[in-house]
Every structure is written in C-alpha cells, then in structure tokens.
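Let us work through a complete example step by step.
Step 1: write down the sequence.
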Amino acid sequence: MSTSNSHPSMACQAGAGLQARDRSGLASASGWGFTARAPGLTRHSYHAKVQTPGRSLGGHARPGPGSHCRAPAAAAAATDVPPTADAQRSERTFDIPGARVRVEVVTRAPCGTQAITVATDKPGSLLLHWGVEGGAGYEGGWRLPGPGARPPRTVQYKQRALQTRFSPAADGGQAVSIELPGPEASDRLNFVIKNEGKGEWYDLNGANFQVQLRDGKGGGAAAPAGDVRPALLPADAVPNLPQELCGVWAYLAWERAGCPARSGAEADAEYDAGVAELVLLLRRGVGLDELWAVARGQVPWAQFQAALGGAVSGEDAAAGRAEGAPSPPAPAPPAPAVPEHLVGTQAYLLWEAAGKPDGADFGADARRVLREQLAAGRSVQELEHALGASPPEASQTASQTGAPPASAPAPAQTSEESGLGASRGMRSVDPLDLIKRPAAAPLLADARPGAQDSPLAPLVRAAGEDDAVCWHRTFNLGDGAQLLATVRRLGDPHAPADDSPELMVELVSDAPDALVLHWGVRARDDGAAWLPPPPGLAAGAGAGLLAGGEAAELAFEGGAAQGSVLSMDGEELPLQRARVPVPVDADLAALAFVLRSRDGSRWWRDGGGDFRVPLPTGDGGGAGEGAPDAASGNPLLQDSVARAIVEAEATPAWTLMHRFNRASDLLEQVAAGGVEDVEGSLARIYVWLRYSSIRQLTWQRNYNTQPRILGAAQERLTHTIAKVYSKTSGMSQEWARLLLTTVGRGGNAQAVRDDILHIMHRNHIPEKGGTWMEQWHQKLHNNTTPDDVPICEAYLAFLESGGDQGTYWRVLADAGVTRQRLESFDRPITVDPQFFGDRRDALLADFRAYLKVLKAVHSGADLQASASAAARIVPAAAKAPLGYALAHAGTGGSALALVEAAVEARTELAAGGALASGREALYLDLALEATARAGAERGAGAAGSAAAALIAPLLQNLALSVADNEEVCHCLKAWLALPAGLRGGGRTARDDALQATAVLDRARRAVAALSDRVVTTLGPLGAALGAAFGAEDWTVRLFAEEVVRAGPAFALSLALSAAEPGLRAAAELGAWQLVSPGAARGELVAVPSLREVQDRAFPRPTVLLAWEVTGEEEVPAGVVALLSPDAPDVLSHLAVRARNLAVLFAACHDAAPLRELEALEGRVLELDSTAAGAVTWQEADEEEVEGGGGRATPAGVAAGTKKLTRPTTPKWCGKWVLGMDEFKQGVVGAKSNNLAGLRGRLPESIQLPASVTIPFGSFEKALESRENRELAKQIRAAVSSVTPHSPGPALARCRDLVNQVAVPSALRKELEAGMRAAGIPVPQNEERWEAALCALKAVWASKYNDRAFYSCRKVGLRFDDVRMAVLCQRVVPVRYAFVIHTANPVSGDADEIYAELVIGLGEAIVSGAVPGSALAFSARKDALDAPRVLLYPSKSRALVVDDSLILRSDSNGEDLEGYAGAGLYESVTVDATRSVVADYSADDLLMDPGFRRRLMTDVCRVGLEIEQALGSAQDIEGVVGKDGAITVVQTRPQV
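Step 2: predict the structure and record it as tokens.
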C-alpha cells in the first residue's frame, strides 16, 4: 500500500520504541469499531466501512452475508479527439447535476508537456479539487505538482490536494487550464468539483473523476479509447468479496482523492463505488490475493495501475454493475493479527500528536502502525511495554468467574438490532474495589485548623452569641488574612429597634498591612449608587472626606499600643479596628467600602466589587439592603454562608465575575476550616451557582466585565473548587464535584473578545451599528456570558441552512434563549442575523473554531475541550476508551459502545488517581459522565429488553459519581454474576430472569435512595434560596428534580425501565404481584404513603392507592383494597393483616396502570384478582357503595362487627419465670406453648431452642411494688390520655414510662435460676444484666406501640387489656432465617407450603424494616423435593447480632381466633442488632443451585413436620446455623 506524501502532517512518534510513520489509511479490523477518518475532518467526512457481517461500526448500515455489495449506476462518457501532427489530443465528458464537465488533454511532442482544460457549463462559484498520479518522484497516492505547474488562483488544501477556482470561459461557461511541463507530466488526473455557494461536491457516484493522461509507463499520450481489454468473467464466477477488503478499498479511494470532507451519504456512495471497482477487477481476472496485496500496501497503487495498463478508473466500475456479485462473507483477518487491546492507546497517541482534532478517529492508523511493528518482528509484549499498556483482562461482556452459564444463549434481540449498536466491551473491574471508603483522616471542619488558628475566631464566636449584634460576617482578604464586620445595637439589645440611639459598625482585621477604610454609603431609594457619607456621619467616625467629596477615609487603629491585643495560647496577636457609629434614623441601606494599605500600594475589594455592610436603619426595620425579607425568617438561611450568598445577590452592581469571586471567597473559607457544616455549606453554594447557571440570577447588572476579567474569575473559582474536592470526602466531595457543572473553566477568555473582531475583519464585515454581528460583537466585548455558546450555535445553524431565520430561532429556543432575553442584555441584540452567501463557507469555518473558544471558556464539561486540557494527566489505561469516546461522541453510532468507552475511561481516571490532580481531570470526568448519560438516553428508550446491555456500564457510571456508592457497587456485582447472554439483552430462562428481576429491584431502590437524598437536601435549600432570589416558581418547584434528571441515576433508571418488562415476562411475573387476593368495591383514594393514613378511619369502603408502603403499617379502617408500587414480603406484618382482614392487596411493578388508576381518584371502582395473578378494575355504581353493596368488607368494619369474645385477662401465676415444663394455656402465650408442645414430636434434625418465659401479669405485678407505685399512676394517666384521633404522643409517653420501671429483684433472681436450669448462658456482669432487663422492659413497652393500638381498636379490643408474656432464648450468629406458612397464604392452597428465607435474622422478613424481597419459594406437600422459586432475594441489608439473648413478645392477643396479633409487638435482642450489606451474589443460596434446592426442601419439610405434629396450619419462624442445623424458634397457628 502507498505511504506517499498525501498526509505528511500525520507523521508522529507513536510511543517509546515505535518509529514515526506517515498515514497509509488502512481501514481498521472489524472487531473494534473505530472509524477511519482523516485528522481535522468533520463528522461528515468519509468513513471507512469497517464491519462485521450485517452491521457497520462506522455508523452506516452495510449488507451482511446473503446480501450483495452493489455498485451505483455510471455517469460518465468518453470520446477521443484525433491527434494532430505535433500533439496527441483526447477528450472526456462527465455528467454532474444539471450540467456536464468536459476534460481536454493535449500532449505536445517532443517535450511531453500536458495541457489540460477542465470546462463546465455549471454556474456558480466552483473549485477544482485535484491532484495527479505518476510523474517525477512519484511514490503513490495523489501527487501535487510543483508551484511552476499550478494555475493562477490555486491554493494547497492541507498538503492533500490542490484547489483551483474556475474562471469565466469564452463560451459563457467556466474552465480551469493546467499545464504540466515535461518533468511534471503525469499518468492520470484525479479531481472532484466543489460548489462553494451551495456547499455541494460533484464526483463520479462517490468516486473521483479520473482522466488518463498517458499510458502509465512513463511516456506516450493518453491511452486511446479503443484499448482492447479482456472479456469480463460472469458475475457468478468471481469469488466472494471479504467485507474488510471493501472497506479498505473505499478508504484508499478516499485517500487518493485528497481526503476531502464527506457527508454520511457521500461516504456511503464512495463505499459503493469501491465495491463496484472490486467487482470489476475480479471480473477482469484479478485475484483476491493481488487485491489484498494492494490493500495491505505490499504493492503500491501506481504500480498496480500500471500493471493493468490504466484499466481501473472511476467510470470503469460501470462494467461491473450490470450484474450482481456475491456478497462479502465475514471478514477474513489479515496477518499479522493486531492486538486489539493496544489499538485504543495507539489511536489516542496519534490523536495527541495530530493536535487533538475534533471528531478525528485514528483507529485505522493505529492498526497500521501496530501491524507494521509486528511485521517488523516486534512482539506484542514489546508493544505493550512501549505503549505503557496492560495485557487484556476479561471483559464484562463475558461471564464472570463462578457465574452460572447462560441458560439460553440465543439472543431475543441483540443490542445492535435494538438500535443500541454493538458492544466494544469493557475492562473488567471488581465492583467492590469501586466502593468509596470514608476518609481515614479528618478533613476541613472535622479538623478545623484554620478556625482554631485564626486570631479572629474568638471574636467571630462572640459575635454569633451576642444578642446586641444584629449582623456579622467574615471576609477573606487573601494570604490568610480576614476581616470581621459586625453591626451592633448600642443600649439595651432587647429593646425595640427605635429605642436604640445608634448602631456601631465595627471592622476588625488580622491583616499585617496597616489598613485604611475608604468608604461611602448607599441610600434606600438608590441602592445602586455609591454616595459620599453625610458630613455628620463622617465626622462622628473621625473620618475625613476626600477631595471631591466622593468618599471618606478612616485609618484603622491597630497594634498593642491601642490595646487591640488578643491572647491565644499565651501569644499576643495585634489586631486592627475601625468603628463607624450610625444613627438609627439615618435611613441608609448599607455602608459600602474598600480597603487600602496606608502607603497606597495595595487595595482590597470583595470579589471584584465593594464590601458592603447592611444597616437596619430608618423605616426599613431590620432587613437592610443585604437581608431580603424572603430570607430573614428561614432557618436554612441563617448560617454565615447562606447569609453571605443572599446579601451578595442584593448588590446593585453585580455580574458573573462578582458572583464567581464571591463564591471563591466562600469556598476558600470552607477549605480553611472556617465553617462548622462543610457539607451543608457546599450544598448551599451549589444551589446558588446552579440557579445562576440556569439563568435564574442576573448575569450582568449595572457593571461591564471584560472577558479576560471574567475568565480570571472562572479560573480562580474552578481551581478553588478542585482544591476543596481534594480536601473533602463523602457528600462534601460530591457537592464539590457538582459545583464544577455550574461554571466554565475560563482559560483564554481574552480570545472571546479578540477573535470575534478578527473574524469580522477577515470576512470584511463592517462594525456597523444596528447590525446583528456588531450588536453581538459589542456584547462579547463588554459582557460575555454562557448565552454566547447557544448564540454561536444558532448562527452556525443559520449559516448551514442557507440563511433560514427559523433555524436560528429554533436553536436559540432549544437552549432557552428567547428574543426577550437577547433584547434584555446591557448590550442588547435586537435584530436578526444577516446572511453572507458569498462568505458562507469561510464564516462556517471561522465560527466553528470560535465556538470552541466559547465552549472552552463557558462550557467546562465539553468532552473535546476537557480531553485536550487534561491530556498530560490521562493514565495510559484510559487512553484507549477515551480515544473511542472522542471519535464517536455525537456521531449517532453505537450508543452502547459509547457508554462503555466513556465509563471505562472514567474508571481508569479514578483508579489512576488523576481526579486528585486538579480541575482538568475533574472536568474530563464530568464530560465523560455526560457522554455516557447522553449515549444511554439516546439508546435506552427504544432498546426494549436489549437495554439490559446498558445496565452494567451505567451502574458503574453511577458508582463513580456518587459519594455513598456501596449499595450501587453491590448491585453491579450482583448484575455481573448473571449470565452474559442475559446481561446482553438476549433470551433467558425463567430462573435466570427471576434472578435478574431481583437485581433490578435492588438497583431501583438504590437509585430511589440516591434520588431521595438529593431531593431531601436540595428541595428545602432550593426553595429557601429560590424564594430569596425571586426565582421563577417553576424552577423552584422543580429544582431538586431537575438536578436528579441531569445526573447519572436518571440514565440508569431509563435502562432499568426499558429492560424490566421483558425480564419480568421471561420470569413469568407479569406487572402485578398479589399479596392478598380477593375482590373489592370502593372509592379510590390516592395517598403518598400508607404510614400517613394508617390511623385514619375512612367513612366508606375505600380502594387505597399508596405510593409508598414498607410492610410495617396497619391497614386503615374502611379500606377494602390496597394498591402500591411497593411489594413488601408476603409474610410481613402488613401482608398478614391484609389477608386476615380479607383486604385485596397487590403491588404493581409498572407505573402506567397505577397512573391510570390515579386518574380515577374519587370514583367508585370494582376490582378483582385473576387466576393469572393480575388485577382488573372497572367503574361501578355509586349507589352500590352507598348502599353497602361492596363485595369485600372494609378493614375494621367486618372485624369490628364480628364481635370477638373479649379475652379473659390472665392473672399472674405467682412465679416470675417458668421453665418449658410449666408452660400452659392462660399462663404463657402461644409461642411458648407451641414450642413446649413440639418437644419429642419432631425429627432429631429439627432443633428447638432452650427457653424460659416470664408469664402473663408479671409486668402488672411489677408495677405494684413500692418503687414503681408512682410510675404506675403516671402510666395509668398516660393510658387514659390516649385518644383515637391522635394517639401517638400519649402512647410514646406510655412507652417512656414503662422503660423507667424498676424490675423486681426477685424477677431477676428467678430469671437467672431458670436460665441456668435450661442451659441458657446468663449475663456475666451488672452491665450485661442491665442490658438484659432493658430489653425485657422494651418488650413490655411494645404493648403501647402505635400499630398495636390501631389493630386492637379495629377489632374492638382495649389495647391496655393485652397481657404480655416474654419468651427468653439464646440467639447465636446464624446463616439464614426463614418464615413458613404451611398453607399457601396467597392462593389459599392447603396442599402447598410457602416459605421465605433471608441471610441473617428473620426480622428482615416480618418487620418490614428491610425493604426488598426474600427468597420466596413453595412446594407441594407431596413433592417436597421439587420446590419452586417464586422470587429471588433483592434485600440490600441483612440483620445480624452477636451471641446474645433475645426477649420475644408472647402476648395473649396471639391466642385470639381470627385476629392476627402476631407481629404487633416487639422482640428485642440484648445486644444491638446490626444492619450489614447483604451480598447474595457471593452466597451459595444463589451461586449453588444444588445447595439452594436442598435447603428449600429441608425448610419445607420442617413446615410439614410441625403442621403434622400440631394438627393445623402453622406460621413458623426458624434459623439455619452456620453448620447447617435448622432450629425452630417459634410457631403459632396460621391466620
């Protein structure tokens, strides 16, 4: 293949040990997906077609096996002009749209000079884009004749081609005349024509026009048209075309054409022309091996052409078009094979060496360089060492070690077929390595070195505690110096403001320079103007007015001589102070000032503006200029940072420059440890700057800022943010990172001002007032803002559209820039842009470059600008994926591959420690995050089940972004443990799909938790600051939501939503999950959460739609059906209560039906559960509900009307503690009695725990003791104060009093003896005994919990009549816990056992405290060896406890028939239960199907054995020990 001078600029050092090489243009191998593209070309440049069968990785569809590579129709004709005596003449004509091109060639003898005329009747401004082949020193490709052979008006195009303007011809057309003297005489002329006015290229169906100038052997005239050529072979006689060869051949044609810019359609046409040419060559008898030799550069193109006698040219391909040709099969890889893991790194190095051009893809060049190095004898290991790259690791597209194999590898819909595109794979990482651990050392406010070291710190604290101080603030002066400003009321600080005769403004500083206060005032009716202080005010302060009377000056008192000395740690520190007394009736808004040194060598300002102290004087009361009423009463705005923000925004003269400098001051204060609440302060600054970035705060008011000054402020702010990021961790660090999204990097902002003027001058656009260009120029000159980016984009679109004003306004509108906003600028833009048709192309080029300047200043997270700025610090491992992301972002190619590349690059940045290096790495990280999000949002929506392929990279993307990422990392680990085919969106078996839906459920909760955290933090802050700023209502209302939608969690949620329906269908789950089946009729009421209404009594049958349910709540009275998107465990308290009350309870995993139902709020609905597990509904008649015709009985209505026999209040049996031999009805509860009844009736494999019980009446007996008599009275009073409508406070009082009860010493003594007799370890010391007795009292107190109160009230029981026995057992660390219902509670099938099992303690199932599903399974009682998994575990947490005691509630409420009293009261461990991460993906429960099946069978067998022993359906709780032994801890009749 040729390595000519067609791209000499591409010579570069490819890495240590690799020689610089010219670009040859070999297309890339099909497996990687890079698109060969010349440096500097736009995304519409020619794309080499690099494909796997049936797809194009370059962004354009190509035929796969079974299709045909077709060549387009011809458009050329050839004739010959008879030779004269001294010259040979030939002529060719070509068709172009609406015209013809005629090429005449005259070769003069004997000198051999070639005179060429290219003429056309096409009107317009035309360019001939041309080069030649052959001639002196020819090495292949296009040769550019020397200066002596170039016509007038010729320019060189990037050392790749010549461009000559057509000149008017005598016949009324246009022509270009070229004369090639003897030494320049060539074999062929290649050219295309560009219409500059229309931006169109004219060529031969995607190939170059080519004219033979001579015979190709170095002499003679052009080959005559009558050449005899061999007969063509039949189309079916030629071999198949390899797909890669097609792409390479098309690329070579594009390179020989001088690499002109091409649109996607033009690239397709060029590809078709290459295919047609190959077909022709094959039909002429050229072998595939010969073609591969040319493609690989082993045979130069010129030599190949000469050998064929010039037989191959663009128009010759017509001969191959009449008949079809065999389609290319899968690519045959050339030898030597290129190591794919090195391609990206090599491409990145080439991109760097080429000057980091936008959108350039060096994949083909990288492969060529690597292939040549391998051919030269270098090993892959040597290349890895030279490039600093690691050997390839397992990709996340492959199944992880230990993961189960794909059950059904055949894809249902590949990611490519879905529109996501092909995967490029990702370097594998251990998800748990991504977890962000808390910082080992204290940071900022935790250590607070600055606050402790500052001499002003005691004064700042004193000002905050002094009631007389009505305002104070600390200003940073730089170099560690500070200024404390306070406003103090003289006299009685508690007296009305009007009674205080005056205020004292005091300024104290620790600056080393002797300071002078240069000050004035601001009046209330003209807050924008600096006014000289009234003479009386200046005199009262001892200040003198300067000449001209514009300001007063007052020297600070300073040094030990004036007594301003503060002793800290035995050291006396000099401070300076200035005081200005202000009468209360002065009616001033603020004191305004700057500071200077006494020698006048230094001045200090507040972020580029004046310092300002608001004054609560005159009729304005206490607000002052800097304390708007909207902020004065809001507790979220009372800290020093929030006050400083609100006050700053009230400054009359204010721009982005001032805001950025003020933010820098506040952040420096945070970085110095000057605030107590670092996280809260950073969140407030983020909200402030985000309001600014979304145009809710002014960007320019009463002040003009030159671009270079704004750029300097941006530079300072962004570097300060990076410093804060490096010194924080956790949420503080997350807020710091997000701050960078609100501000551009600044940089060379002066270019904004300079370049617009250069563009205008270069294009001869006058600086004429009233024109669009001049108005924008004036705005840019005086106040450039982020609005200038969309303005430039809109103008570019205007130019590209040929001057369409609608396009201009459409682009502006999409960016939120309205005509009113343009007209509101201090330098307004009031007219529409003017179209310069004759300068369109030049303006497009100039403004595309100018847009980069604007983005570099204002758009910090622009990928191209960020990659360029961070190039020096990008780790070697990040260069390959970063190179891919740079080449493919915004191209419309594979969304999946783009997401994978961006996330992999982010991962390597984080792993390499680059993020701590400064703002450039952080900006690159943000840009890559945005790229991944954009790719996901583009691809997920229409991907359907194939969106599963996005879940792994998007989980990893989220883990890299958020501070508290442990749960996200575990979700990623669980997802990667699934079969690879499923993760790629392929078909899957039911069991694999069930596991996947569990992971999706867990991931959804993780996303929701992160979202809720942001909303909880930013919602109140956004509302408070938004109100203080006067932001538009809609932005305040949606502030937090829009932050979430702009983040990585939202992109993940899109992928989860797209993939979940298909996975649920494969898992045979459907959208609905029945918890309690049935039918109901009632009025629909929608509520945010069930907890909010659990104490309500609905007056009529109600269908309740609750958007949040935990499983701990009660079913409210009057409710006949409960619908929710949340699905608590089937055996949770709420689920059991719903079934007990015959309330229809169903969860829906699809938001659409719930939204449809919500729209029917207030109407009467009739609902029913189907045999398939779904819920149906229809509107019903109002009269049927009013008349009591509902088919289901409301919760609490039936139970309340079915009068339960009031239980007899058990009496104390006379003993404090009973052993199992003494358990009997009426003395202890059902839990104790059932355990005792199982002794000797179960197989040895089922163990029972040693137990003792504190019987009924013990609590009441304890209250009778002398030490508890007073407490007993208080408890009775608290019980009497409980009211049905608001029981919470009184019940809480009851619990508090019970926990103060003194446990009788006799009870403790008997408990110790009973435990020893039963073999239960006793507490070893007083501290342990105290803990055990506290647990006992907590169980007693649980009879007064809210849930028990509501439940008793519904069934007509008086809550205080319940008696509480307490079952005491040993609890040891266990592996699993389970709950069994021996009759299926959902279907009611008595022949089927239903069970749930979790890691850790069973409280995770029954309490509802741990969201997510347990492992749910069932088995027929006659087929226990064939259990069926219904749901896999999705719980994020497990509850564990050390070896301890547990005190279990055993109330008499659990003995009542038809009343589910179980689960209402507490069981308490002596040692605190801990919540730990549940890693099911590493547990045998999921990883070992055989183990899981055996365990499920054993658990179901336990249920059957106990049911048979006790003679009725049972509700059983048990545990599985570390050794696999099963212990039943309690059982009770199932209700």
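Step 3: interpret the result. The radius of gyration is 41 Å.
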